[in-house]
Amino acid sequence: MRVVAWMVVWACAGANGATLCDIGRRQSPIDIRPGTTARQALPPLNFDYHAAPLKLADDGHTVRVRFGRGSELRIGKERYGLQQFHFHTPGGDRIAGEEFPMAVHLLHKSASGQLLAVVVLFRLGKENPLLASLLPLIPARADGDHSPMGVTVEARSLLPSGRGYFRYPGSLTAPPCTEGVEWVVLKQPLELSPAQLARYRQRFADNARAVQPLHGRVVLESP
Ligand SMILES: [Zn+2]
User: Fold this and answer.
1) How many whole angstroms separate alpha carbon 210 and alpha carbon 91?
2) What's the gap in Å between 23 CA and the centre of ligand 1?
3) Please, what's the b/e burial string for 96-120 (b: 16 or more CB within 10 A of its CB; e: otherwise)?
4) Region 44-63: what's the mean pLDDT?
5) pLDDT digits 0-9 by tens, 108-141
6) Which of 3, 51, 79, 193 could form a disulfide bond with 127, CB atoms 3.0-4.6 angstroms apart?
């Protein structure tokens, strides 16, 4: 029994006990620097998001809003259903070295199981309307999903008007850091107020992963 357990650990962790989080070469987040990007006529992002009943949870790491079927992102012929969004502070992915105080990760999955994360970054500025309605509803404890009666959420309001984006092959940002996740980082940030950032950070301070090496990856950039 002990031998079997050891072999399982070895098979997924490598001889030194290193995990994909340590030795992976397509990890997220990254710093998107000039000189590592390639401009291309990438297909447009067609967000078909609809209002949905709010289902949110404090998962002990962040606040997570889950979706059933009904909201999707189409890129070319590919369709990705919106599964959930959650927030990080600081923002994780950087652009030309700039660290953003917050990001939202909108996680999608295609029918074939392909994961795709859309990253929207935030700078300090005006109050964000969606965060204004969401922050007071964050559950007091990590105790599963909450569905406040009659409250809906519009994920569309987490999208900037500009649809320019970067795209790179990345990973989950928490163990097991699974690779093969498509990352789409929107170029135009949104704003949140300093008070909103402080309120979020009271509950979930520094829950972003540090930037990871590119290891030769090329970041595609839409016009
Ligand atoms: Zn995330």
Assistant:
1) 10
2) 20
3) eeeebbbbbbbbbebeeeebbbbbb
4) 95
5) 999 999 999 999 999 999 999 999 999 999 998 8
6) 193
Distance from the alpha carbon of residue 86 to the mean position of ligand 1, in angstroms:
6
Distance 87 CA to ligand 1 centre (A): 7
List of domains in the chain: 2-221 (3.10.200.10)
Which amino acid makes up residue 207? Answer: N
Catalytic residue among 61, 88, 108, 215: 61
What are the pLDDT digits (tens) for 57-110? 998 899 999 999 999 999 999 999 999 999 999 999 999 999 999 999 999 999
Q: Does 61 qualify as catalytic in the annotation?
A: yes
Which residues place a Cβ less than 5 A from the ion ligand 1?
105
Higher pLDDT, 155 or 17: 155
CA-CA-CA-CA dihedral for 17, 204, 68, 144, to nearest 10: 90
Whole-number Å distance, alpha carbon 102 to ligand 1 midpoint, is 11
Q: Name the nearest CA neighbour of 178 among 20, 47, 33.
A: 20
- pLDDT-derived band at 151 (thresholds 50, 70, 90) equals very high
